[in-house]
Each structure stands twice: as C-alpha cells, then as structure tokens.
Automatic annotation (TrEMBL):
Pfam families linked: NUDIX
Cofactor dependence: Mg(2+)
Enzyme Commission designation: 3.6.1.55
Enzyme category, top tier: hydrolase
GO MF: 8-oxo-7,8-dihydrodeoxyguanosine triphosphate pyrophosphatase activity; 8-oxo-7,8-dihydroguanosine triphosphate pyrophosphatase activity; 8-oxo-dGDP phosphatase activity; 8-oxo-GDP phosphatase activity; metal ion binding
GO biological process, one term: DNA repair
Family, per entry: Belongs to the Nudix hydrolase family.
Taxonomic superkingdom: Bacteria
Residue ranges annotated for the Nudix hydrolase domain, each copy included: 9-144
Catalytic reaction annotation: 8-oxo-dGTP + H2O = 8-oxo-dGMP + diphosphate + H(+)
Keywords in alphabetical order: DNA damage, DNA repair, DNA replication, Hydrolase, Magnesium, Metal-binding, Mutator protein
Family matches, as InterPro entries: MutT-like, Nudix_hydrolase, NUDIX_hydrolase-like_dom_sf, NUDIX_hydrolase_CS, NUDIX_hydrolase_dom
Protein name: 8-oxo-dGTP diphosphatase
Amino acid sequence: MTTPPEGTARTAVVGAAVLDSLVRPTRLLAARRTEPPALAGGWEMPGGKVDPGETPEQALHREVREELGVEVELGERLPGPLPDGRWPLGETFAMTVWLARVTAGEPAPIEDHDQLRWLEAHDLYAVPWLPADLPIIDLVATYLT
Ligand SMILES: Nc1nc2c([nH]c(=O)n2[C@H]2C[C@H](O)[C@@H](COP(=O)(O)OP(=O)(O)OP(=O)(O)O)O2)c(=O)[nH]1
C-alpha cells in the first residue's frame, strides 16, 4: 500500500482572508468563534469544511454567505507549506486560503461567530488568533500597507 502525499489525507477546510481591497489592502477581517468550547473565543478567518460534491471555491462562497451574509470575489490563493499548498490545522485538517474582497453586503456575525473586527497592520495581532492561523496571518501581514 502506498501512503498518500503529506496533506492530501487531511479533511479539507477553506478560509477567506477578507481584505478591504485586493489591489491595495490595508485591513483584514477577523472573526471570533463561538463553537466548539475548545475553540470559542479564538479568532479566525471565515470559512469551514468543504461539503461532499462542492469545489473548495463553492464551499468558501457558501461559508462566507452563511457566516457573514456577504458575497465575495476571490483573489489569489495564499500558498501554504504543505506539498499541495494548503495550511495545516493541527494533525487532521488542512486549509486552502484565498484572499477575498466583499462585493455585496456588510459583514455581520450571523453564524459561528459573535464578533468581527477589521484589523490594520499595526493591530493585526491584537486578537488571540487560533494558533494554526498565526503563520497565515504572518503572510497576510506582508500584503497590508
Ligand atoms: N473556518 C476556519 N477554521 C479554522 C481556522 N483556523 C483553524 O484552526 N480552523 C479549524 C477550526 C475547525 O476545527 C476547522 C474548521 O471547521 P469549522 O467548524 O469552521 O467548519 P464548519 O463551519 O464546516 O463546521 P461544521 O461542519 O463542523 O459545523 O478548522 C480558520 O481560520 N478558519
């Protein structure tokens, strides 16, 4: 039996680094989780698990619509350290992350979050990010002016 390449056996999660602009971003949208208890209070990027039959992009549009009530356009993918370009979340999940921009609606903590914050470069680490997000935030920081 062959072992799958590192990363591919992990459950697929998608996340949106929602920025105020894809051209000259100055702010990132952070969301505070309400569930499960072990993660509640931690800050993350909107997103979630890819459902069967969905592409990762479809899953991200669905999650952002459900969680924030907005439509987004996706920009580039943020390359992660796994061989397939995803970001490890602990041992069992791997997240594909896109830059994104709101195209319709005003983000609100409709589902899975109880607070949203737009963070600028100077206060990007002012919230307790979920630990797995920190390397991703480090990369997002390089996009903010
Ligand atoms: N959405 C999201 N999940 C993250 C981030 N960082 C991080 O470690 N995670 C973890 C938390 C969860 O264990 C997992 C994603 O699952 P989720 O609970 O958001 O997925 P979901 O909305 O589809 O939830 P469900 O089907 O379990 O109800 O990834 C992040 O930035 N965004």
